[in-house]
Amino acid sequence: MAISKALIASLLISLLVLQLVEADVESSNKKNGYGKKIDCGSACLARCKLSSRPNLCHRACGTCCARCNCVPPSTYGNHNRCECYASLTTHDGRRKCP
Fold first, then answer.
1. CA-CA-CA-CA torsion for 40, 43, 46, 52, nearest 10 degrees?
2. Coil, helix or strand for 88?
């Protein structure tokens, strides 16, 4: 009888801990911008509209947006608004994302 009470108590505690960890992961994902998917197509069209090579820009932006779920505002710069987007680099060490 004592073993079954201890088993039930430990099961309830472990379920509570699991629920708390899951809630913490969800809140940190929302804080980092992973909570809601953005429309990469329209965000990249806006980002690349003044580019001299729009197809190349849109392709690179789409790749970066798919990985980071973020595109910096305006047509140039503002990489600090999206850390993941700014951190992606090519093999040469240059920024991958326009």
1. -40
2. coil
Tell me the range of 14-18, 22-26, 75-79 where mean pLDDT is highest.
Answer: 75-79
* Residue pair 58/48 in contact by the 8 Å Cβ criterion: yes
Reported as a pLDDT band with limits 50, 70 and 90, residue 48 is very high
- How much is the average pLDDT of 31-39? 69
Cα–Cα distance between 16 and 6 in angstroms, integer? Answer: 15
Burial of 75 (0-12, 13-18, 19+ CB in 10 A): middle
Q: How many CA within 13 A on the CB side of residue 28?
A: 6
d(CA 82, CA 47): 13
pTM, 2 dp? 0.59
95 beta partners = 89
